[in-house]
Amino acid sequence: MSRSSISRAISHSLRGPLKFKKSSFHRIYSPATSSILSTATTNATRFSDRFKRRGSDFTQFRTMSTDTKITAWASKDGEFRRQVSSFRDQISSAPDAQFPPEKGRYHLYVSYACPWATRTLIVRQLKGLEDIISVSVVHWHLGEKGWRFAEVDEKITDAGPDDLIGAKFLREVYFSVNPDYTGRFTVPVLWDKKLKTIVNNESSEIIRMLYTEFDGLIANEFKNLNFYAPEYAKQIDEMNDWIYDTINNGVYKSGFATTQDAYERNVLRLFEALDRVEDILKNSDGPYLLGKTLTEADIRLFPTIIRFDPVYVQHFKCNIKMIRHDYPVIHKWMQHLYWDIPAFKDTCNFEHIKKHYTKSHTQINPLSITPVGPVPDILPKSE
Ligand SMILES: N[C@@H](CCC(=O)N[C@@H](CS)C(=O)NCC(=O)O)C(=O)O
Question: Can you list the GO cellular component terms from the UniProt entry (predicted)?
Answer without folding.
Answer: cytoplasm
